[in-house]
Amino acid sequence: MIFMFLFIELMKNPLFALIILPILIFFARVADVSLGTLRTVFISQGKKYLAPLLGFFEVLIWLLAIGQIFSNITNIWYYFAYAGGFASGNFLGLIIEKKISLGYLKIQLILRDNPEKLINTLKTGGFGLTTLTAIGSRGTVQLLIMVIKRKNESKVKDIIKEKSPNAFISIEQVQTVKGGQFPLQQKVQWKTQRLQKKK
């Protein structure tokens, strides 16, 4: 009750409308656009519970921000705050999405050279893959297919670049995965090593 009273009194202050409210609109827009980016990622990955939940908060925050715009439609600073928040929200959303790296990727490689070194390195790293012999436009090639966690994308790319720099590579997103072989998490591997040392 006291908080509401103080907030109402603060809203009466001219500085609130001039400075504080544009800042609030900016950060509200950053929040709702970032949530929108994550919601889109969750939809593409078939996460049917997380996507609607994020959508609820995304729209709620957007309504609060747009409501302030229409209540103060003559204040140009509100427009800049709204637009700046939208741009920053897109940038932040992409950073967050890249950091959490949810989901899986399907990698297909076409190799003309002997792929044994690449295959052995990937298998040693715990990655599962399937190898096929195929006929390309210039003769016989090796086709490697693998599904990896998105957070391992950079690691796999580095291995491919080192062992088969001339490989043709295509990457696409995978919605769902069942079964398969994936490398253990670094934390799990570290715990396993500690147990072995104790023995």
Task: Report on the architecture of this protein.
This protein is of the alpha+beta class. The protein has two domains: 2-99; 104-183, Alpha-Beta Plaits (2-Layer Sandwich). The protein has helices spanning 2-12, 14-44, 50-71, 76-100, 116-124, 153-163, 186-198, and strands at residues 104-111, 130-136, 139-149, 168-174. Strands 2-3-1-4 form a four-stranded antiparallel β-sheet, with no helix packed on it. Helix 2 packs antiparallel against helix 3 (50-71), helix 2 (14-44) packs parallel to helix 4 and helix 5 runs antiparallel to helix 6. The longest helix has 31 residues, at 14-44. It starts with a helix and ends with a helix. Mean pLDDT is 78; it is low at 187-193.
Summed up, what is this model?
This protein has 7 helices and 4 strands, in the order ααααβαββαβα. The chain has 199 residues and is of the alpha+beta class. The protein has a 4-stranded antiparallel β-sheet with strand order 2-3-1-4, with no helix packed on it.
